[in-house]
Amino acid sequence: MTPSRSRGTGGVLAALAFVVLCWPAPARTEDQPQPAPSPAAIDAKPAAQPANSPAAAASTSSAAPAASASTAAKTTLRQRVKAALTKISPKRLLQDREYKKAATNFVTFCKDWEQRLRDRETFNLTSIVWKFRDGFETAQYTGYSNVETCTTKETDSGFALGKLTYEEISYYLAGKTRDEALHAKPQPTGKTHTTEIFRWDKGKWFY
Fold this sequence. Notes:
The protein is of the alpha+beta class. The chain has a domain at about 95-205. It contains 5 helices and 6 strands. Strand 3 (about 150-155) and strand 4 (about 160-175) form a beta hairpin.
């Protein structure tokens, strides 16, 4: 009986070995851990790009704007420093005080100039040339509006400039007699916008 049991156990073991050897191995999936890279792969470095490669050209082109921006920033800073030193120099401080004086005086100058325009218009009226046309005494002369703007400006070099504006108006007169024409309402026939520029020098405005 014992030999019979031994042969039966051996047959079972042989069958199990056959099943294990013939069973297909499980397929690898993405979730299974990958083998660690070797030290040689970790230490490996990418090959250097040739000087004329697209990557090298892109690196050079990106560095050029940065250098240009840095140079422009330094230039702007120098200009600001120079402008600040100019403003606080004794000469510029004196010019600034002189400009304030000039700007205050220009207001009075504009009023005086307006009176000059009135006097000039009166002179034009007394100097007109009369012409007899279609039974009427006719004439033309130039009149002036009030001063419209009166402004000043300090130049970069520290000098004071003044500007005023007004209108030059052409008038037409007509009447049965010269006296009637002079007392009639002048008819404007044209207008010219005029700008006058003046410079402050040696304590007064020149024109």
